[in-house]
Amino acid sequence: MTDRQVGIQPATDAWRMWKSGTAPERRSPQGRLFQLADRFGSAVAAKKAHVMPGYLSDPAMFTERTFAAFLFDMDGTLVDSIAVTNRIWTGWAQGHGIDPDAVLRTMHGVRAVETIRRHLPHGDVEREAAILTRAELEDMEGVLELAGAAAFLRTLPPRRWAVVTSAPRALALARLERAGIPVPPVLVTAEDVTRGKPAPDCFLLAARKLGVAPGDCLVWEDAPSGIAAAEAAGATVLVVTATHAHPMATSHPMVASYEGLAAGLDSAGRLTLALAGSRRRRGLTS
């Protein structure tokens, strides 16, 4: 008895046609079955790529979703700067008689001026921010690329991604250079907006500069303030957990690093995201 006689070969042919987008219809029972099988393949690939279990809350991101652009936070998302940041802000807090733990709990992901206003409301905010920025520019010890970030970014078309950070421009450029991260044509920094994260202004501006709708973007973030800003902008969110000391409670999918991830363009020229080893990996431009 041959494979074709027991129906194996026709099923294989149908699977290949479904992957190419020709048949069977995705809404048909057979199409739904193949869709589930494709998602299961992504789940297996996710385990190999060390993608956090939370990604399963939106498996379509790795099998079906496409985007006009990717918007990346910097610190904690592309660059690991947590050691130097904590070191400098701890010294600043102690110098002003402020509990360092209280500062460190609230400063990640937001502009320095917001943190200073919160903890030193009667101080000279601009002066304090300038002192902190100078200290951070002079201390690059421990500033590192997050695993696989630079290689992943180099696969993206230049006008289809941006870095959106709460850091001042000079500090952003210095940290990107230190970590070996390419600088995109669109870089939105602290000086570019009146309201910082969690306000959506920075992501709205980045989308506008790229000429795309904010709701058609995938935002890569690590901090609650940035996640809130992306949500307010109407974007899809992917949480990068590389620098998290504790699990984050979030409904968004999560990845531990860029290793095992692959970006590409579909036939319509839209960005796709796949897990190395998943079926969607085939045909990607990266």
List the helices and strands and how they pair.
Layout: H1 8-19, H2 29-48, E1 66-67, E2 69-72, E3 79-80, H3 82-95, H4 100-107, H5 112-119, H6 125-138, E4 144-145, H7 149-153, E5 161-164, H8 169-179, E6 186-188, H9 201-210, E7 217-221, H10 224-233, E8 236-240, E9 254-255, E10 261-265, E11 271-275
Parallel strand pairs: 2-5, 2-7, 5-6, 7-8, 8-9
Antiparallel strand pairs: 1-11, 3-4, 10-11
Helix pairs in contact: 3-4, 5-6
Average pLDDT, to the nearest integer?
82
**Largest beta-sheet characterization:** 6 strands, parallel
What is the strand content? 5-15%
Spatial extent as radius of gyration: 22 Å
How many beta-strand segments?
Answer: 11
CATH class categorisation of the largest domain: Alpha Beta
Strand order of the largest sheet: 6-5-2-7-8-9
Please mark out the parts with pLDDT under 50 across 5 or more consecutive residues, or reply none: 1-57, 281-286
The gist of it:
By secondary structure, the protein is of the alpha/beta class. Helix content is 39%, strand content 14%.
Record keyword descriptors for this entry:
disordered C terminus; six-stranded parallel beta sheet; 286 residues; three-stranded antiparallel beta sheet; 14% strand; Rossmann fold
Account of the 3D structure:
There is one protein chain. The chain has helices at residues 8-19, 29-48, 82-95, 100-107, 112-119, 125-138, 149-153, 169-179, 201-210, 224-233; strands spanning 66-67, 69-72, 79-80, 144-145, 161-164, 186-188, 217-221, 236-240, 254-255, 261-265, 271-275. The protein is α/β, with parallel strands linked by helices. It has two domains: 51-79 and 143-281, Rossmann fold (3-Layer(aba) Sandwich), CATH 3.40.50; 82-138. The strands form three sheets. It has a six-stranded parallel beta sheet, covered by helices on one side. α3 (82-95) crosses α4. The radius of gyration is 22 Å and the shape is globular. The two termini are 42 Å apart. The relative contact order is 0.18.
